[in-house]
Amino acid sequence: MEQERPSAKSCPASAKMCPVSSKLSLPRLRLIILVLLAALLLAACGGSDAPASEAEEAPAAADTATPVPEPDPTDTPPPVPTDTPMPEPTDTPVPEPEPTNTPEPEPEPPPTAAPQEESAAESAEMPGTGQTFVIVAEESEARFSIDELLFGQPKTVIGTTNAISGEITVDAANPAASVIGPIQIEAGTFVTDNDRRNGAIRRFILQSNQYQFVSFSSTELTGMPDSVAVGDDIEFEVTGDLTVRDVTNPVLFIVTLQVISETELRGSAATIVVRDDFDLTIPQVPNVANVGEEFIVEFDFVARAQ
Questions:
Q1: DSSP-derived 3-state class of residue 121
Q2: pLDDT tens across 156-194, in order?
Q3: Do 238 and 135 belong to one domain?
Q4: Which of 175, 192, 252, 194 is closest to 218 using CA atoms?
Q5: Which pLDDT tens digit goes with each residue over 246-280?
Q6: Closest CA to 234 of 142, 172, 148
Q7: 185 and 296 both lie in a single domain
């Protein structure tokens, strides 16, 4: 029988017993280590390629991503300037037709019509030629005033009445041709502050029982304007005939006339009358002396057109 070779398993732990097997295991170990190192190197090379490609791809993507937003700022500014100026010039010329509309208020001819209306109104304000105005007794008054000594004291006696009637005819085209009168005053209606004096005036001075009216009619007007219009204040002189009882004499009245409207006149007139011119004697009365030789006759009148 052959002898059995001792195996590595049966080899004792000491090196002396297994020298050949130990020499064989070292080269194997080296080979295994080299294989492992080669595998690790291959693995390392493969891993380095993958990240390198990814790193290269990443910056490429980054490079391509950055230029993309760059056209955005270039795109956005151009439309802004093009949009803003365009509507402005188009909007501004549009209102230009407005100045063509403004001159349309050519209805300025009304000022020419207005003065025409004013002139028409002024002509209408003038009393008509030959227009007659009648004295309104209730709004008019006739009076006289005369000085005397009563109980040795100076006194001015005033007698008044509104029993007046008469007419004023106005010629607007020729005011100097106007006519005042006849104007009549009831002689027996004068009233003073004393009843005895009133009776003496009626019975002895004016003799109203026999001569009912004191009357006046104009014969000439002087100082009249060329025309008469509403709102005018006119002062002129009227010469006419004054009749007291059966005596008539010319007297001159100073007249102030107001043209209130086309249908109304207001005025006043005054004159001085000498008693002897009309044979007016004063009866002898106790306690009355030095009765004036002159007295004032006045009229305040309102006359309205008929």
A1: helix
A2: 999 999 999 999 999 888 999 999 989 999 999 999 999
A3: yes
A4: 252
A5: 999 999 999 999 999 999 999 999 999 999 999 99
A6: 172
A7: yes
H or E stretch at 253: strand 247-261
| Residue 134 located in a structural domain | yes
Inside any domain, residue 6: no
How do residues 86-107 score in pLDDT, each as one tens digit?
545 444 444 554 545 555 555 5
Do 194 and 245 lie in one domain? The reply is yes
User: Which range marks the domain in which residue 225 is found?
Assistant: 127-305
CB 186 within 8 A of CB 208: yes
Stated pTM of the model: 0.57
Cβ-contact 157, 146 below 8 angstroms: yes
Residue 253's pLDDT is what?
Answer: 97
Q: Does some domain include residue 116?
A: no
Q: Quote the radius of gyration of the chain (alpha carbons, Å).
A: 70
Same domain, residue pair 185 and 266: yes
Instruction: Give the Å distances, CA to CA, from 204 to 152, 160, 208, 280.
Output: 23, 18, 9, 9
